[in-house]
Structures are given as C-alpha cells and as structure tokens.
C-alpha cells in the first residue's frame, strides 16, 4: 500500500487561536507514523515560522522553537507563499533557518523552507492526496 501524501496548510498566525499549535502537533504525530508530510504557510500562517518570536507580552508559551524539530521527523518539505510574505512586509530572511540532514548526501544539513509563488503552491497542492487546512 502506497504512502499517501499529506499537506498541512497553515493559514493562521501563531498565537491568538489554537490552529497553529494544533497543526504542529498533528504534523508531528503523522510523521511519527511515517506519513509523507509537507507544510504550506499561507496568509498569516507565514508568521508561524518568523525568526525571533517573543511571547512575553501575551502570556502564552512560545512553541516556535518546536519547528526546528521537524527535520528530525523527516519533515523537510516546507513551502511558504511568496505573495503572503510580500503582503506582510516580510522576506525569506525573516524566517527561521529550518534544516534537515540529507541521508543521501552524507547527512549534510539542507534548508527545509522553500519560498514559492501561489501558482507553484497550487501545483504542489494538486499533487497531494490529502490537504488539511488549519
């Protein structure tokens, strides 16, 4: 039986709702069961992987560092909407340096995040078996 491709669409900012943390938890569980997992960060979801988040002023636990564990779970297909970044005054340089170790290339660390256009993202989404939106 072939492994299904699951894409998780992250559309909400990190804090203020439970969507971001719930998506991250579901993604890690799916990966633990060896599913083919990818993530897309669209709209305010791009804020989830912005570097240097500080939650001191809102009284919530900062879970953003958990994204650094994705590579350990073989989750290395992270797509970020270029248009969503631009609309929010962000660039790829504002994002966390998320990496994975490529076992086919002598365990060299490689970037997991790929900034793509919405048209490219639509194409990637069409190749998935399941897309879940958070």
Task: Explain the overall architecture.
The protein has one domain (5-133): DsrEFH-like (Hypothetical Protein Ychn, Chain: A), CATH 3.40.1260. The chain starts with a strand and ends with a strand. The protein is built from three helices and seven strands; from the N terminus they run E-H-E-E-H-E-E-E-H-E. The protein is 22% helix and 24% strand. The model has no long low-confidence stretch (mean pLDDT 93). The strands form two sheets. The protein has a five-stranded parallel sheet. It has a two-stranded antiparallel sheet with strand order 4-5. The protein is of the alpha/beta class.
Helix and strand topology:
Elements: E1 5-10, H1 19-32, E2 36-41, E3 78-81, H2 82-87, E4 99-102, E5 108-111, E6 113-116, H3 118-126, E7 130-133
Parallel strand pairs: 1-2, 1-7, 2-3, 3-6
Antiparallel strand pairs: 4-5
The average pLDDT is: 93
| CATH domain class name | Alpha Beta
In the CATH hierarchy, the architecture is 3-Layer(aba) Sandwich
Structural class: alpha/beta
- Listing every helix as H and every strand as E from the N terminus to the C terminus, the arrangement reads EHEEHEEEHE
Total tally of structural domains: 1
- How many helical stretches? 3
Outline type: globular
Sheet with the most strands: spatial strand order:
6-3-2-1-7
DSSP summary, beta strand count = 7
Report how far apart the termini are: 27 Å
Name the helicity range: 10-25%
Query: Could you tell me the radius of gyration in angstroms?
Result: 14 Å
Largest sheet: 5 strands, parallel
CATH-level-4 superfamily name:
DsrEFH-like
Proportion of residues in extended strands: 15-25%
The CATH topology comes to Hypothetical Protein Ychn, Chain: A
Low-confidence stretches: none
């Amino acid at each position: 039986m072939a492994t299904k491709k699951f894409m998780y669409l992250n559309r909400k900012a990190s804090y203020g709702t439970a969507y971001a943390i719930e998506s991250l938890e579901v993604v890690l569980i799916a990966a633990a069961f060896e599913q083919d997992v990818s993530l897309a960060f669209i709209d305010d979801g791009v804020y989830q992987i912005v570097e240097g988040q500080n939650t001191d002023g809102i009284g919530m636990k900062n879970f953003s560092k958990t994204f650094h564990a994705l590579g350990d779970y073989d989750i290395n297909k992270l797509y970020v909407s270029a248009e969503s970044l631009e609309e929010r005054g962000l660039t790829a340089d504002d994002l966390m340096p998320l990496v994975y170790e490529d076992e086919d290339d002598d365990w060299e660390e490689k970037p997991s995040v790929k900034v793509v256009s919405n048209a490219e993202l639509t194409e990637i989404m069409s190749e998935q078996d399941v897309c879940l939106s958070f």
